[in-house]
Amino acid sequence: MKDIDSVKYIKQTPDECLKLSFRHSMELLQNLIGKEQLETAKKFKIPSPVKNKTNTDWAQTIKIIGINPRITKTYWGIVKYAMTFPENGIHLMPLFETGDGSLYVQNSWDLNDEFLDKDLSDYGFITAKEQLKFVVNILHALGKVVGFDALPHVDNFSQIVILNPTCFEWIKLTPDKKSQDYTLETEALGREIEKLLINKLNLSPDFFALSEEKRKNILFPDKNTSFQKRMQIRKIIRDAGYEPIPVVEHSPSRPVVFDREEYAENGESWAVFKVEGKSEFAKIIGSNTPYKFYKSKDGYPVKNTFDKKVLDYFTERIFDFQKEYDFDFLRADMAHNQTSQSHNEEKDMKCPEMWAILKDRIHTIKPYFATFAEAFWGNYYISGMQDMLNKKFDIVLGENNFLYMNEDFVASTEKFLTDYREKYRIFPCMTVFTNDGDLPVHDNLYKSEEANECRYFASMFLNLPSYTGIGFEARALEPDKNCMYSNPYVKKQEKEFLFGQNKDLFAAVSDMRELYFNIKEIIEAKKLILIPANDKKFLCWYYEIENSQKLLFVLNLNAKKNCIETDIKDVQTAELIYTNSRYSEIQADFSQTSDFKINNIYIGEYVVYNLI
Length: 612
Fold this sequence. Notes:
The protein is an alpha/beta fold. The protein has 17 helices and 29 strands. Residues 1-6 have low confidence and may be disordered.
């Protein structure tokens, strides 16, 4: 059995690997994991590479690749792509059946049949459940840990909402539908909707006391007609004046209140909401509604008042999903400002948050299970750092991917390595690129070949976790078609995603991956020493290996300076292991009496030295 330190891979561009025939991909896979492992994966569960870990420390240096299944097209496409990189973590974007087509608008707890693979079906894995279990087995056999997206919200008229009205927040409109009835508290509205559906659909009085599976079989017995049934029930609920509260982003962003009614040409109407909270950044995501984890008053979550029924429902559903497919970590979607007390001016810092309770539940069977927050390090929400601690996150996405490669990037990285990692024991990701952030508005961050290489270099060789979305390794510097951006593929698109053909970036990434593959045990096991540089646009660090031997990394982001002097003394041998330098004159200057100095290292260049 491979462990997390023995990942093997093949060097192919993303589009090349996804074009492989099923037979060819199987042959390559067998070469990587062996025939015996492949046969085992067909019938039995392949244990996680971190199954023997007793805590989540392994996540502190994990290198994650984010995969949008709409880009790999099928469940087997995930495996094809996963064979092409040595990064040992995989984050799968949401795999649940969708409501409006967006991966992040969940309709039910069923897997998305959109990703069914015909070749896998012919191979004997017919259903989405069978295919995903086999895929996770293979990824574990490749030595990779696998994470899924946990969503604290669903489509606002999803099967989940209709089957569980009391798990969500509602408002009721006045009979003329011109204003909100503020005399009604959301706590009672869910029960009113239950009674409404029992009467209008001629359901038994004890319908909502049945198991969710039985309720689903009664209301949604056929997938082919489930959408029409949902629309029918949505009309019943809306005609009666009830509307679910939408998801809000950038807290504090409460209360969320009715603004106006809008109408379609067919006469159907829906409520439009607005935020009366205090955040200038607050925005509404109208297609989703959040779970009602807290009791609420006047539109705000009330401290220390978890709605136990809702919390238990969500926790057990995620617990069962994790257990069913043997995932190793989850990504907590919108973890920075939802489903928490961060909507309140004053937080009770002792109150556990929902994500922490969920993590503790999973730890009853898997103490190695880690949680990864989609969250940022800015101060635009209340007590952000304390919020992350209360939620017991191991790693956090961070915002380095939104910084230019300059002194701000260096300062942010140094802060990650000191304040956050050492002081808080929360490990921020060196985020290179995210698929949902791949939009034209962010093109300026990725127009420089050298800057792209530098981002990736920092992400791979700092002993922090990292995150890179699918397709970065060959991304065009200036995409000229909408289908070359991955963000639109969160939703269904008519045109196939078009991978970049950036051969120079792919070559540089491949070289760095090979170096990482050869030295990753040092990066994961050794303490990183950050070297204060004589310039704010240089990033320097080393790992102490043995017998005073050091592995030194230097990254230059300064256009005006091509010399870096460190405080490392008594260097007797300086072996250049790796550089992307375009020049042959890069030099090391050292003696037993002077500091170690590197000359002729230009902006966008990096070096790795073995120092003795």
